[in-house]
Every structure is written in structure tokens, then in C-alpha cells.
Amino acid sequence: MWSGPRNISTAMMRSWENRPDCTVVDEPFYAAYLADTGIEHPCREQILLTQSTDYGKVVEELTEHPVSSPLQYQKHMTHHIPRGMNMGWCASMKHCFLIRDPAEVIASYVQKMPSIDEDAIGIRRQAELFTEIAAITGSNPVVIDSNDVLDDPGPILAALCRDLEVDYYPDAMLHWPAGKRSSDGIWASHWYHNVEQSTGFGQNRTGAASLEPAHRELAERMRPFYEEMAVLRIRN
């Protein structure tokens, strides 16, 4: 699942982890991204200590290590993947792109981080990866929009499972127990408070109308990249 930040990506991870046949991997390239860019993020030192900072070793873990369940759900942040990285490692996997309106992404992001730029929200990179993975796999990845999921999660998740050719478990995927998970990254203490309280997909909330001018301008610059994927999204 390829997403940017602040995009119900952790709730979606909860949904898949609650299935009886699936384990999850939470943002495995986070430490490599931090080490590569030198960027300051909450929990930076803990992340660097708890994950590999070597992109190649992370790829090896994702592709060569045995999986303890029939399915594995990998939650990836698109801005964690450097341009020029060989994406051939994921050629045999099934892919979905989780998108969200740029203005809503930004409105949510600035509540958690003091500064923001194009790279931080990963929308352009998401569109680039969509094109790369489509070329590698020979078909367009599945696309879902977070607003569509929040508006009517059952039909969207059912269609997603159909397109990924896996069984759909409505009771498990629409409702999960509140609380922390051992599978959550060490960064959960900063980012996952709302998800830890959740027992399902929440209401569709946005503060996009209150964006300051610079953030609104950034959202409009990112909109074409969002829209090129949005025209392909699953609709209920």
C-alpha cells in the first residue's frame, strides 16, 4: 500500500492486520529515509536504532525473509523511496495506491509538524511511483481515495479485495479493537494517537478550508499529480 502521510494509512493497516490471514509491516524504509536525508522527525533517534538504515537490507527483509501468514500487508510512505531506486524488487507483489486530496493532507500534516514542503507530503513522488510500478508490473495498480473509504468503507474495501484477488472479511476489516499494536513503528507515540483510540474507519473530517495561502498554493501545485491517479480510483 503506497501512501503519503496523514492519509488514513494506519487505519488501513489496522483493517488488514485484523484479518485472520494477514500480518503487517509498518513503514520499513523510515530509518533509511531519515539516515539518507538527515531530516529531523519526531522519534528520529529511536527510529534509527530500531530499523535498518540500509535500503538494500530493507528490500532483502521484504522479499527474502519468510512470512508467517498467507498475506503480508506492507505500509509504505512514498516520500521514503528515493528517486532512482530500482523498484524491481516489488515486481511480483500486488499494489494499491492510497490517495487523498492534497489540501486535506496538508491541513492534517501541519497539525503534527511545524514545517511542510512538497517532498514531505509525497504526492508528486506517489505519482512517479505509480508510473514506475505500472511499467514494472505491466498494469495500473489499484487506486483508492481515503475520502471514498471514509464515506462508505464496505463497498470500497470489498472492491479493493476483489481487484487484489483476495477474500474480503467485512467484519474483520471494518471493525478492530482499540489500542496499541506490537507491529506499530516506534513513531506511533507521535503519530498514532487517534488510530489507537479507533475501532473502525472514522468520519470524513477536513480542515482544508482554513489553509494559509502558502499551504493552499502547495496544495494546488500538487493537485495535478493527485488527479492523474484519482481518475483511476475505485468508486462505489
TrEMBL record:
InterPro entries: Class-IV_PLP-Dep_Aminotrnsfr, P-loop_NTPase. It comes from the Bacteria. Coiled coil: none annotated. SUPFAM superfamilies: P-loop containing nucleoside triphosphate hydrolases. One of its GO terms (biological process) is carboxylic acid metabolic process. Belongs to the class-IV pyridoxal-phosphate-dependent aminotransferase family. This is Sulfotransferase family protein.
